[in-house]
Predict the structure of DNA-binding PadR family transcriptional regulator.
Amino acid sequence: MGNAKLYKGSLSTIILKLLNEHEKMYGYEITQKVKEITKGELKITEGALYPSLHKLEAEGLLEVEVLKVDNRLRKYYKLTEQGTQETVNKLEELERYIKTMRALVNPEFRFD
Amino acid sequence: MGNAKLYKGSLSTIILKLLNEHEKMYGYEITQKVKEITKGELKITEGALYPSLHKLEAEGLLEVEVLKVDNRLRKYYKLTEQGTQETVNKLEELERYIKTMRALVNPEFRFD
DNA sequence: CAAATATACATAAATAAGTTATGCATGTAA
DNA sequence: TTACATGCATAACTTATTTATGTATATTTG
């Protein structure tokens, strides 16, 4: 991903959340959506995206439907039930991560 | 580190920030301080910590002073001037990361 | 009309940052 | 005397990326 090393580990969270919001998306669409939402801050590379999608599918979190649109292939992904559950977990993990990092880095946020 | 994969990439930020706050710390002390501040949420493993400290030193961000306390060795690390500057950068990166992730994951936080 | 750019997928080699396991040494508590 | 805490270190392995390619079609641009 474009810039900071911090994004390492957050790609699957991003994918799951976008699919949670959009019901059905294909790979290229995901890269564009992320670029748009983040105003170019984050650019997902294909070398990261496609293996990640395949892994999520293999884990049973996503299911695929291949369509031909304008004579081009598109593989649409959507959340399985398990995927929807895992999305909740990943989002909780992200919030916990952010809280923990704030506590570490921002002394006035420290837990009581 | 203990739990989520999200912490990957944030160790150097944590180390630099703690040294920014404490002037001078040794490795074991850092692991304990992190455990304390995060209430056990985050446990830094030695296999991650020591290589990271060595790398930061090699990059000129930290300098070392070896002391013998209670007949045991301690390697105290402190920020160099460059290290202080890099701390600012890392903290900015962290804030930018958090903002970007919030925009992605929390639609009501999306940028205008 | 040719060339570049956008759309759409994919994979392989290399890199980075961790985990897990292990090793050494001293001191203290059970 | 055995376990646990303090204190450092490294090597082998794993995982998630980056970088570099490859294929193919569609559209824009000079």
User: Anything to note?
Assistant: The first helix of chain B runs from residue 11 to 22. The helical segments of chain B are 11-22, 27-37, 46-58, 81-105. The mean pLDDT of chain B is 95. The interface with chain A takes residues 3-10, 13-14, 17-18, 21, 34, 37-39, 41-42, 91, 93-94, 96-98, 100-101, 103-105, 107, 110-111 of chain B (CB under 8 Å).
